[in-house]
Amino acid sequence: MKFDYDLFVIGGGSGGVRAARVAAQGGARVALAEEDRYGGTCVIRGCVPKKLMVFASEFPDMMSDAQAFGWTVHAGGFDWPVFKSKLHAELDRLEGVYRNILKSNGVDSHDARATLADAHTVELSTGARFTAKHILVATGGHPVKPDLPGVEHALTSNDMFHFEALPKSILINGGGYIACEFAGILNGLGVEVTQYYRGAQILRGFDSEARGLVSEEMIQSGIDLHLGTNVLEMTPAKGGTSVKASNGITKTFETVMFATGRAPNSSDMGLEAAGVKLGRKGEIVVDEYSQTSVPSIYAIGDVTDRVNLTPVAIREAMGFVETVFNGNPTPVDHHLIPTAIFTQPEMGTIGLSEEDAREIEPVEIYCSSFKPMQQSFAGRSARVMMKLIVSVASRKILGCHIVAPGAGEMIQLAGIAVKMGATKEDFDRTVAVHPTMAEEIVTMKTPTRVS
Ligand code: NDP
Description:
The chain is an alpha/beta fold. The protein has 3 domains: about 5-140 and about 265-325, 3-Layer(bba) Sandwich (FAD/NAD(P)-binding domain); about 150-260, FAD/NAD(P)-binding domain (3-Layer(bba) Sandwich); about 340-450, 2-Layer Sandwich (Enolase-like, domain 1), CATH 3.30.390. It has helices at about 15-25, 40-45, 45-55, 60-70, 80-105, 175-190, 210-220, 310-325, 355-360, 375, 405-420, 425-430, 440-445, and strands at about 5-10, 30-35, 110, 115-120, 120-125, 130-135, 140-145, 170-175, 190-195, 225, 230-235, 240-245, 250-255, 255-260, 260-265, 295-300, 340, 345-350, 365-370, 385-390, 395-405, 450. The strands form 5 sheets. Strands 1, 2, 3, 4, 5, 6 and 16 form a 7-stranded mixed β-sheet that branches. A 6-stranded antiparallel β-sheet has the order 17-18-21-20-19-22, with helices on both faces. A hairpin with a 2-residue loop joins strand 4 and strand 5 (about 120-125). The structure holds NADPH dihydro-nicotinamide-adenine-dinucleotide phosphate (NDP).
């Protein structure tokens, strides 16, 4: 059968654009449909604008550190409209880069919503239909809010980049990556931040000592964090939204944001009618090659709800192209993925938490928490933490957890050693880089505990 295309990609985010570009560079005839902005969550309403806001929010502390180092500087005020217009100009530029990548590689882009008509046919909202030998679904995910009275008054992370003016106060509900990152950002920008989290400690699933330090530092920096607390109902009130919470407190906040998780963009796409199996959360079920239950249809990125991170979606895209177009079946390796949470301080992490590791085998824990030189000199009480989880049997580093300014940068490099299977003795043999915070990672000689 003759198809219009070798590959039709649905979704122009990081994963979809990478797959389309690389397949086209290899000579495939490729089309891509995107109903919203090119670049997807990461570029338009996630990692990129979030990180720029993190940078913006860090200046007040830098300013007071500068004073402590003898500089005569005054922070003045933060001009949100100035920052916002630069932020959106940058996002426009990046969207242009994404569009251009497709164009310059000969990919046909369609600014339209695409649904599946059958295993080889895509139908666009424009009414056009195209056949393709392979279809790749890379439609990402979206924020979800629990069903509770008045929840329609709460914003989500998508709205955080579009304030007309910064609110005076905000309640953030949730304790995951997004809730904690925006708590730090908005606090740094001068918004009064209250955060409710239903569990006993934020950032569930990460190493508990690391979570504890992040949470302590967030509170120290002025975030009013309430653990074991959830929103019960919300009603519009003078000056914002009145929020009744499970801690017995009813309080009005100018703005409320829910960061209570994300769900795959898989509905109303004709997936199930075409025979594509979905999981309980609506995620597309795929095998290690990202192939769905329909052999001609593949799926990558957040819509598959495997590890919902941009670089993972990109890996999945590359694995897909290798497998399908280069005759080189390449499963995606989801083991030992380093990641950073851009809280203030940042957390960088790879591998097992202490709690998970000791369920599996006996481990030695090396942990050092200290005041770093720069902040200590400036009179700040902020602490950082370096932690290694070591297998007693193999001596391998099973987990590395860093809470410190720049932890994201540090874990990228430490992650290489951990991924290579480095042992504690390999770390010990590496000479310290002095004076740095990261040198602690190779100078911890005595286990803090063995469990
Ligand atoms: P997460 O799944 O990380 O966190 C969701 C939070 O909402 C949890 O604290 C959860 O509590 C809480 N929650 C869920 N349901 C309810 C409910 N009904 N009522 C109250 N609280 C609720 O989701 P995020 O939205 O923060 O982030 C989504 C994903 O995006 C992340 O998992 C990550 O993969 C990715 N991401 C990565 C970033 C990075 O790499 N730096 C940054 C931002 C996002 P509980 O813990 O009790 O379940």
